[in-house]
Amino acid sequence: MKAQLYLMGDGDDIREHIEFYLLNSDLNALTSFSKNLTKAITVIMEFAVSRMDAEVIYAGGDEIFFRIDKDRYNRTFIEEMISIFQKITSNTISFGVGESVEAAFLNMRRAKALGRGEIVEWGVKKRTNHYTFSLRLRDRINI
Questions:
Q1: What is the CATH number of the domain that holds 41?
Q2: Which domain holds residue 93?
Q3: 1, 46, 75, 87: which has the fewest C-beta neighbours closer than 10 Å?
Q4: How many whole angstroms separate alpha carbon 47 and alpha carbon 143?
C-alpha cells in the first residue's frame, strides 16, 4: 500500500458570518452565503479529485476532508484551493496535512490558530525525511 496523506480544510470565521446574519434576521444574505459555501466546497472537492486523485471522505458545510497518495501531494494545489474558496465565498479556508487522521486534524487546528488561509504540514515526512512547517509558521517562530 502506498504512503498516504490526509488533508482537512475548514472555513475561517464562518460561524461569525452565520451568527451575524441570524442576529440581523438577514435570511436572504444567509441563504446566499450558504449557497456560496456549498458551491465552494463542491468546486474544491472536484479540484482535489481531478488534480490529486483524492478520495473524499467528508465534504459539507465549510469543511472538506480527503486522503491522497503521498506522491500526489502538491502544496501549490492546496494554495489554489484556498484561492478558489476565497473567490467564491469572500472567506478563507485553512488546511492541515498529516500522515494520520489525528495529525491532519491537529495541523488544521494549528493552521486556524495561526490566522486565515493557512496550511500546516508539520510532521509530514518529505522524500528527504526532513520535517516541514508551513512557511508562515516557520517565519513566525524564527526557525
A1: 3.30.70.270
A2: 4-140
A3: 1
A4: 32
DSSP state letters, 79-126 = HHHHHHHHHHHSS-EEEEEESSHHHHHHHHHHHHHH-SS-EE-TT-B-
Task: Map grid coordinates 508539520 to a residue.
Answer: 122
Give the burial string for 49-84 (b: 16+ CB within 10 Å, else e).
eebbebeeeebeebbbbbbbeeeebeeebbeebbeb
Strand order in the sheet with 55-60: 55-60, 63-69, 4-11, 93-98, 119-120
Spatial contact of 24 and 59, defined as CB atoms under 8 Å apart: no
Total domain count, the chain: 1
Work out the average pLDDT over 124-137.
47
Does the model's pTM come out above 0.70?
yes
φ/ψ bin of 57: left (φ > 0), alpha (ψ from -120 to 50), beta (otherwise): alpha
Q: How many Å apart are CA 137 and CA 34, to the nearest integer?
A: 31
Residues of the chain with pLDDT > 90: what percent? 83
Q: Could you tell me what percent of the chain has a pLDDT over 70? A: 87
Does pLDDT of 133 surpass 90? no
